[in-house]
Amino acid sequence: MSTITAALQVRELAVQYGAISAVKGISFEVQEGEIVTLIGANGAGKTSALHAISGTVEYTGNISYRAENLRKIPPHLIVARGIAHVPEGRGIFGNLTVMENLRIATWQRKDKAGIRQDFERVFEFFPRLRERVSQPGGTLSGGEQQMLAVARALMSRGTMLILDEPSMGLSPLMVQEIMSILSRINKEGTTILLVEQNANMALHIASRGYVLETGSITLSGTGEELRGNPLVREAYLG
Hints:
- By secondary structure, the chain is an alpha/beta fold.
- Helix content is 38%, strand content 27%.
- The chain has a six-stranded mixed beta sheet with strand order 6-7-8-3-9-10, sandwiched between helices.
- β9 and β10 (216-222) form a beta hairpin.
- It is globular, with a radius of gyration of 17 Å.
């Protein structure tokens, strides 16, 4: 039987903004090939945890990726290590075309053949983007902008994708489409850490999940266990 190794290990992570404790010493891990979701209400500390992993906020505790401690590594080198972050609000460049947005993610890469291959791969996942390569990012619909944000992260050839609220502001149909594409990306070998307020959808596609409440992890389990948990159902599944 093959042993599953933890790709990402977070130990005693704490994030403080002045007098406010956003994250209070949480520990969790994401194994190679998994989809793991962090669910919780607004202000629970989910986004702060992702920013700590990406190296964009100060924190205490330990974060390691593939057994390497990330503490002293600047954000652009964390991306080079394979962690691609799709932030809340998508963060695309509205005045640049779809193609220019995608090309930006390849700035660290020298493998021209690999880059061509990855363009084909993202257009296979997102055929709508292929039709809109020359369109400015700002003219796309919300769902298409989310597709572009995910596609851009894939162009960095990351081995792990971390996503913050990919379903925010999207129609139920578009949410289903995005979640289904994330499942496909995962089946092709990309590990995913997903922060999502649509807990029902997230737990449907996740191998495992953690529930965050006011900066602390209060529950964890498989996606199925959490979907069946009465506390989770009452608080997050309506």
